[in-house]
Amino acid sequence: xxxxxxxxxxxxxxxxxxxxxxxxxxxxxxxxxxxxxxxxxxxxxxxxxxxxxxxxxxxxxxxxxxxxxxxxxxxxxxxxxxxxxxxxxxxxxxxxxxxxxxxxxxxxxxxxxxxxxxxxxxxxxxxxxxxxxxxxxxxxxxxxxxxxxxxxxxxxxxxxxxxxxxxxx
Length: 169
What we know:
169 residues; mainly alpha; two-stranded antiparallel sheet; 63% helix; 2% strand
């Protein structure tokens, strides 16, 4: 199998020359703002997806069940905390616009996994399907509404040519 790369270029060099997939998905959004928008989308979609998944587990849908380790149920907030810790650690250094976009998406996903089980974390009891579990739903809807409103009200200017060029790196 032959390589289509030019001599002397690495895969990493080629990846840097390709435009970011986020640039195609969110044209005209500045690289600095892109991570915030992806965090919002990641949060909303993950929250909805987790509610659907847990409902399928709750009604005993075929092939869908809890994740366990050694007989202990692992709630999805655990994965959210791990993901938030990883994003926090990765965010300590300077990052490219592409990396910041991926980190924004991962942050939104991780935060949704934690917020979806906020009622459990507050009461220290598994109240997911009880009346007290509504706290998680209310909190998630508030986060989606407030973050979406802030993003809409602070709508940034369109990305300049310089910012678009730096986003491709």
